[in-house]
Amino acid sequence: MNLINMDSENRVVLNVGGIRHETYKATLKKIPATRLSRLTEALANYDPILNEYFFDRHPGVFAQVLNYYRTGKLHYPTDVCGPLFEEELEFWGLDSNQVEPCCWMTYTQHRDTQETLAVLDRLDLDTEKPSEEELARKFGFEEDYFKGSVSWWQNMKPQIWSLFDEPYSSNSAKIIGVASVFFICVSILSFCLKTHPDMRVPIIKNITVRTANGSSSWVLDKQTTNAHLAFFYIECVCNAWFTLEILVRFISSPNKWKFIRSSVNIIDYIATLSFYIDLVLQKFASHLENADILEFFSIIRIMRLFKLTRHSSGLKILIQTFRASAKELTLLVFFLVLGIVIFASLVYYAERIQANPHNDFNSIPLGLWWALVTMTTVGYGDMAPKTYVGMFVGALCALAGVLTIALPVPVIVSNFAMYYSHTQARAKLPKKRRRVLAVEPMRPIPTRTPGKYT
């Protein structure tokens, strides 16, 4: 009987979420400085009638917690979310880094998800109209909003910003967004068409020449061609819109410094500024030699296509995918460069082993171009090995290129699918949720002494 009593005294009953667990007190002492290692009958959650401790916590997680005390191995239950598991471990006083390696990949998935959601928050993909309080906080007049002393400019500034920077905020913003896309497309189309020979006007000059009999005569000489004058007027109209758009967005932006540092805005005002610089150079530097080279810098205007990211969430996700896959892309370039150098050297010496009067590989630098074209599976055919050894090296180069390019592609595709799926899920997520009220502590019921109020 004494042994039975001693065994019952060493056992403890834990009621977690309505599920009773029974274990030895010595088991709970294995991990000191935790909540379960400091259980005493003086605690408020101890029930002397049932002789058990009650905890209103998740019972499924506690089963793994108690198993950690028994075996020393902490496993992650797959039927709960990662943040919930971390909250439960924090309540019981355990360290989440003690999760076993077999469960670590599954357990840390929620951290990757939180990082992805943080990235999507920075991309500003939400089309939900913010409240007046959120707008006041965003534009820095929150104190005036609560005081009720908001000026007319403070009221107009968020509306102008939404009109020009958030195409899906209202019907008027959609119209301005369509106009912006229209001018971008017209500007790019004009930039491309003005280089076509049929769209250019020749510059003809009279030149006086001496004939064979000593008399003078004149001939017409076509020196160069210029773009048609209509393209100049088209560019003037487009750049007038771009200039107005930049100024309005800058004046109404909530954060001027953030606006200036934005990569898309940098491309925008550099492309617009290049138009005015081009006008000045044509007026004052057109007589200089090789002045046509200055037109090369106008290619920056083609970068306006990146402005379409403000109107398409898919482009934002695609750009973010390349940012997230920077390590894989760097690894791809490294392996390509390594393979190009190796196979260019091999094919150079392979073509010199046998007699080859039509050898295309006169140097290793020429072989670098062939190796690049072969490994990327383009195959222009301008250079090709003629010997059997060179053909064997070419076959190995083509196979190595296919394998090298195919390896990082699944990672890039999975990153794009991850961002896109989270974006679609956020679009369907309700913005207003029901809040759970905090449980107020119960007031202790006073006990009456029998016969005191008789």
Secondary structure blueprint with pairings:
Elements: H1 2-10, E1 11-16, E2 19-24, H2 25-28, E3 46-47, E4 52-55, H3 59-71, H4 82-92, H5 101-107, H6 109-123, H7 132-139, H8 142-147, H9 152-165, H10 171-193, E5 200-210, E6 216-227, H11 229-252, H12 256-261, H13 263-284, H14 313-324, H15 326-350, H16 364-375, H17 388-406, H18 409-428
Parallel strand pairs: 1-4
Antiparallel strand pairs: 1-2, 3-4, 5-6
Helix pairs in contact: 9-10, 9-11, 10-11, 11-13, 14-18, 15-16, 15-17
Structure described in brief:
The chain is α+β, with helices and mostly antiparallel strands and 454 residues long. Helices cover 55% and strands 9% of the residues. β3 (46-47) and β4 form a beta hairpin.
What can you tell me about this protein's structure?
This protein is α+β, with helices and mostly antiparallel strands and 454 residues long. It has 18 helices and 6 strands. It has helices at residues 2-10, 25-28, 59-71, 82-92, 101-107, 109-123, 132-139, 142-147, 152-165, 171-193, 229-252, 256-261, 263-284, 313-324, 326-350, 364-375, 388-406, 409-428, and strands spanning 11-16, 19-24, 46-47, 52-55, 200-210, 216-227. A 4-stranded mixed beta sheet has the order 2-1-4-3. Strands 5-6 form a two-stranded antiparallel sheet. Helix 9 (152-165) packs across helix 10 and helix 15 packs antiparallel against helix 17 (388-406). The radius of gyration is 37 Å and the shape is flat. 16% of the residues are buried. The model has no long low-confidence stretch (mean pLDDT 80).
